[in-house]
Amino acid sequence: MLTEVEKRVLECIDADEVVRWTQELVRIPSVYRPLTGEGEEQAAAWVRQRFEEMGLVTHWELVAPGRPNVIGILEARVDGPRKTLMFEGHTDVVTEGDPAAWSHGGPFSGALVDGRIYGRGANDMKGGLVAAMCATKAIIRSGVRLKGDILIGALVDEEGAMLGVKHFVERGWAKRVDAAIICEPEENHLCIAQKGVMWARITCSGVMAHGAMPLTGVNPIYPLATLLTKLRELEAAEIARVGRHEFLGQPSITPTIIQSPVSGEPQNNVMPGQARLTLDCRLIPGQSPEDLEAQIRALFDVVKAGEDGRLRFDFEMIESRPPTFIEREHPFVQLLHAAYRDTTGKEPIYGGVPGTTDGTILFARAGVPIVTVGPGDIHIPHHVDEWIGIDELLEATRFYAVAALRFLGVA
Ligand SMILES: [Zn+2]
After folding, report:
1. Which CATH architecture has domain 196-321?
2. pLDDT at 37 over 90
3. Which residues sit with Cβ closer than 5 angstroms to ligand 1, an ion?
């Protein structure tokens, strides 16, 4: 059941504004293009202007040239310690690809057709960011005073190395955050688990030689092949150990690049000195990148045992992000469950995120409890003709407002 105060806040949501703001933000391209230096700056400036108009305490923090995080805080005017709820979004979008492939006026049209807003970023995730902004605006407009703070983070580079959220954590912002809603497109499902990732480069070094006289060198390719078969066994052992996750399925160790020679001209009669393998490992709760790395390194010794003493393996971690998980029984999840049910009249659907999000960094580096829940079809991110449905957008706006009122309390 919604309280009278909650109903009053929901009446203050301006549906036309939710749509208009989403269109405006989609119309500002914010693809990061390293060659030209274009990035999130214009989109971030739009967000900053809205924050300032709403009266939020606004911070503009440059993460890299042309790439600012924008942080807006609705401060509670109460004495003593108070909680902070974060709504997390990112201002960058992925490339539009071939603009000619887009319908409805091109990749950044923000066209409104049959209840959907089209354009790169509409779904991932300018719609979700606008929903958080408009939920906060409704609370302000209603005159209801919160007992805690809403912090909206519009961060850069989620689609890249997640520099924005890493900067946010390094600057100490995450310390004050008690819980975060990651506004990524999940059809408003409550996603309580996210897969982790580990990208690693393994180089096997031997001794280069003439193909006609292989015994004068050490061929790295056979040992690398042996390692590959052992990695497949390791994958099977890890699947057997941690099982299938309810929302994420099973973990994987996937070789994605295999390369030899690593440098120089490949030639039929030259036995290369090096062979290299790149792995894309996806992790589920119960696994960690550190543990997986240790297990892979242990395989190096197993393979080397039967080989020439000059053979060497090197492990290089390219990127590692742990899986995240929050229990259904966690008070934050319970609160969101009830807020969703009371706002929509439906029981929420639980789910998991197959990839990683900025929330992964908040969880792993700062211990912030996170739930990923936002508007937008789960399968449409990064597609041509990306869209978001206005019904889901408004549902998220209403749900976010009630979630904030309940998490922070009304003064
Ligand atoms: Zn996203």
Report:
1. 2-Layer Sandwich (3.30)
2. no
3. 124-125, 184
